[in-house]
């Protein structure tokens, strides 16, 4: 009898979040029509000239468009792969530590970068990898030439992927540590009695035990293939590395906001949203296929 009343409370708790979502996510979607117009702020959406798919044709005819898509996908794929691999390895190693004080200290230290904004963390990265920073000092000591990491098209993508993993791997390991606690301890005891080494217990008990979570996290990350991380790239890139570091989000910012080509910026954003939606549906299908869970 009280169940509907309890559900009302739950819905009231969700109400502020839903209002926020409607105001800042759903209502602005009306601006999608700008992608099909030659939008002029003076004329507004209602009076601007309709141009059909001309903005999309123009985007794909640009010589830089292919490089921007390639940069976005390479950086995103690198972040997704390392974003799964490093937290899994770290959680497996942390799970083997038996001294609780040391374990909690390590957890606290590696979780901290996640709570720093990219504005702050980018300053740390710039200090460490600057031309006269500690990394280049170390390279000089061992007889190597210093490298301009943030100005090199050869190193910029690698730096973006590794620094993102550095910032997020600690926080990302939480879910795998939780999955490890769900494995039946009786399996380890039985394996020890049978003489299984630690490596074989890891290979045949631990990894299969957390594999469903790894697959779910991987499929949930796929829709972000075109989200290479605006905050990080924007705070670390410069015109020297546009060739390797310019991604869709930074291109939309430069074209849409700085050059005031609002229709072109909206068209690029719409392409990204459509691809993201297709990948979300594909990821949902993969999750349903490889596990008994659904994303929605």
From TrEMBL:
Residues 69-283 form the ABC transmembrane type-1 domain. It is found in: Cell membrane. The lineage of its organism: Bacteria, Bacillati, Bacillota, Clostridia, Lachnospirales. It is a multi-pass membrane protein. Pfam families: BPD_transp_1. Its main location: membrane. Keywords: Cell membrane, Membrane, Transmembrane, Transmembrane helix, Transport. The keyword Membrane applies. The chain crosses the membrane at residues 12-36, 68-94, 106-129, 169-190, 202-222, 262-287. Belongs to the binding-protein-dependent transport system permease family. This is ABC transporter permease subunit.
